[in-house]
Amino acid sequence: MGTLDLRAARDATDPQKETRALIPRERVAHVTYHEQQATVMLHAPTGDQRTHIDRMAATLAGVVWERLSPRAQARFHALATFAVCVADAPPWMEEAAQEDDDLLFALAGHVEAHASAYFRRADDEGGEGEGRPWVVVALADL
Fold first, then answer.
1. Domain with 87 in it: what CATH number?
2. For 34, left (φ over 0), alpha (ψ -120 to 50), or beta?
């Protein structure tokens, strides 16, 4: 009888070594809006795209950002998020997202939820990372 590989046996049963399915940066979304339907691609924005979204929101507003109400700021941010992170949107969806805040905020909300799950590498977008902290900062003793 050969020797047992205890390390492999430990790793196979160690919950800390559990591998999780990775969430892709892009995700297909099926959208139904009144009688219309479309399939679009949502993607978690990169760092550069996040900066672009912030700048685009301010540009779309066309006024000093601080003069806008919080609701207006959120709307322009959602419009920029839609423009940058929702691919393959048909013309009717682009028009409706500018007119109907319910559609706009639903799409932008799904982009943010997907981005949050993507960066946490959660198994599903409702997952909380199962008790593992996402960020830990420990100061070294002096």
1. 3.30.2220
2. left
